[in-house]
């Protein structure tokens, strides 16, 4: 099952009722974020998503899409996180994200991998991939799609035989 939580849907500035960009996606117990604008960690607390994120996928390098990373990492470190975290971003975003990761930290308690993505790149997971595709935004920008692996269906022959047939 997939659970999508819109943590922020505002544009460049938050409003009284809407935070800037962030979407939480939970797939069979795995949690990931798409964008992490300012205040995302508070929204995660508000909506009960938790912080057990394996990856954050940044769509583009405007501040309202990634500046929440620093505070979120701090909270994760204070909570004793040790699991690695992937930060995926468009090409040319590595330096900016590296600065955000190290802002205010001597050293994090967990490894952070920053991976620049290009259209067509994918991050494989058990049963699905997260694939990047190009979007037009006046700067390097990506969209992401969860592509499920084929699953073997379950067909119950006995139940099918018990169904009434439709005659013409």
From TrEMBL:
Pfam family, one: Anti-Pycsar_Apyc1
Molecular function terms from GO: 3'-tRNA processing endoribonuclease activity
Source lineage: Eukaryota, Metazoa, Porifera, Demospongiae, Heteroscleromorpha
Protein name: Ribonuclease Z
Superkingdom of origin organism: Eukaryota
Species of provenance: Geodia barretti
């Amino acid at each position: 099952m997939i659970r999508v939580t819109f943590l922020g849907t505002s544009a460049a500035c938050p409003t009284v009722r809407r935070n800037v960009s962030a979407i939480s996606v939970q797939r069979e117990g795995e949690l990931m974020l798409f964008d992490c604008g300012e205040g995302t960690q508070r929204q995660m607390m508000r909506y009960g998503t938790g912080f057990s994120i394996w990856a954050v996928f940044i769509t583009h390098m405007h501040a309202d899409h990634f500046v929440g990373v620093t505070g979120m990492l701090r909270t994760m470190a204070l909570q004793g996180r040790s699991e690695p975290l992937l930060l995926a971003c468009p090409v040319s975003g590595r330096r900016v994200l590296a600065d955000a990761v190290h802002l205010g930290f001597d050293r994090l308690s967990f490894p952070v991998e920053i991976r620049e993505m290009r259209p067509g790149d994918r991050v494989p997971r058990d049963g699905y991939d997260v694939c990047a595709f190009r979007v037009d935004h006046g700067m390097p920008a990506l969209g992401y799609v969860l592509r499920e692996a084929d699953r073997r269906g379950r067909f119950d022959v006995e139940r099918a035989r018990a169904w009434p047939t439709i005659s013409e």
